[in-house]
Amino acid sequence: MKKSIFARTYSGIIITVLLILVIAYAVTSIFAQSLYYANKIANARIASLEVEALLNDEELSFSEFMYKMDDLAIETGGRIVVFDENNSVIYGGRSADWNSQGSEQIPNPNVFLPEDAVKLGKGESKVYEYSEHVGEASMYTFAERLSNGMLVLVAIRVESISEAVSVMKRMLMLVMLAACLIAFIAAYVISRNISRPLSNLNKIAREIGRLNFGIRYEGKRQDEIGDLGRTLNNLSDKLEKNIDGLQAELEKEKNLQSLRRQFTAQASHEMQTPIAIINSYLEAIEDGMVEDEAELEEYFKVIREENDKMSTMVRSMLDISQIESGTFTIKREEFDIYGLLEPACEKFKTLAENQSIVFSHDEIPQSCFMVYGDEQRLEQVLANFISNAYKHADGGKVELNFKEIKEDDMVQLPRGRYKAGIRISVFNEGSSIREEDMPYIWESFYKANTNTGRKGTGLGLAISRSILQMHYYAYGAQNINGGVEFWFEASGRPE
Questions:
Q1: Which residues contact 273 (CB under 8 A, 6 or more apart)?
Q2: Region 217-233 average pLDDT
Q3: Cβ atoms within 10 A of the Cβ of 275, count?
């Protein structure tokens, strides 16, 4: 049967206290009288030594001697009788033990002199038992022959010992009753003090098991229970954080799967368009419908453009597949970044004229700036940034800017032997990116979400992010001056 911790603690304390009290009472009942007797005999021996000291004190007068002997008898709690070498009484004195019983006359001192006590040699002592009734001791007498030949007797009534032990037992019974009462109250308080917080902690643990993290331990205890409560709070916080993170990841994965499906549908549609155009143009050429040389050249130009679109889409799909599988690699070598920027500027300047976009860039210096990286992949990143800017410029302005910067001005410290860097940014006029979309623009298939209202596969920025991360380059995007800026920083050195 299940038993609560309160019941176990309470019963355990009560049983322990009762057991201690019973043992204490039993020990007192069994050993108290003998211990008390032993203590009285020890006191009698001490009294005998003090009598000898008084007898040897020559400065004491007889009255002072008698006075001190009376005090010693009272202090000892028995009758003291002193005999000389001839066994004649020199002090038969008084005894508070006898007088306290209302005796009007002190018994004859010779009553306390055992027959063989006179035979004791100097320095010898003995304890005698005196009985008024057969089988029942009524008095103990300690006899000692001093070194000066005096015989000292100290008589102790058994009734005084028994009465003292009886009083002790009665006091112990009262103490036991009081202790039991206190134990019951203390056990209840202690048990509640232990069981209540543990019950609350158990409730909190059950709620955590139900994934309810709202209930927390609010106690201020600085003991093991308080430590356990705070540990449960920490566990609750970590579980809540991990579960929220897992749910977010699951939701993200769910959205990613949805975006993949949308991307597949959109990619299929976008692939069908150039294929259809290429097929129709080739059929027209095969059927001899195009005879003019200039018109034929225009047909080939369109076919090349549509083929380039499909090639770009296929390469992007291969890159993102390698990134997700962990097989995407880069080949690093030192090269002049300006040697990459110059042809890119010429290429996109021509494209800008065809799309009615105003493209401008900073003047490319005659000097070199050497970076260590994959030139072809970084060119891919730059092309992705500029192509993305063209798609969103809406016939406006696109700017390519680059600036050599010192180590202290870089977002991320340069790696390896380099102590400087170059910041490359692409700005386009047009609509800004919604703040709620900003954290996701680097994710794969982001632009496949038709709710964004933007065209494209949504792979370019995801591929660019992976390339820049593999180079350990800082990168980012921000809404500024009526448009959007994408940037990255490359570590390098000027020459």
A1: 306
A2: 74
A3: 13
Task: Please report, for residues 315, 325, 332, 334, 466, the alpha-carbon distance to residue 329 in angstroms, rounded to integers and kept in the order given.
Answer: 14, 11, 10, 17, 10
What Cα–Cα distance (Å) separates residue 416 from each residue in 219, 404, 412, 420, 472? 52, 18, 13, 11, 11
CATH of 5-170, one of 3.90.1010, 3.10.20, 2.40.10, 3.30.450: 3.30.450
In angstroms, the Cα distances linking 310 to 182, 265, 305, 448 are: 92, 15, 9, 17
- Chain mean pLDDT for the chain: 77
Domain ranges of the chain: 5-170, 329-494
Higher pLDDT, 43 or 132: 43
Instruction: Tell which residue, 384, 312, 365, has the closest CA to residue 495.
Output: 365
Q: What value, to the nearest 5°, has the Cα angle with vertex 233 and ends 230 and 236?
A: 155
CATH 3.30.565.10 fits 329-494, yes or no: yes
One-letter amino acid for residue 471 of the chain = H
Long-range CB contacts (within 8 A, 24+) of 243-250: 243/211
Q: pLDDT value at position 104?
A: 40
Helix axes 5-56, 158-209, angle to 10 degrees: 150
Q: Rounded distance, CA 254 to CA 248, Å? A: 10
Decide: 323 and 467 in contact? Cβ < 8 Å.
no
Closest CA to 420 of 495, 336, 492: 492
Are 147 and 123 spatial neighbours (Cβ–Cβ below 8 Å)? Answer: yes
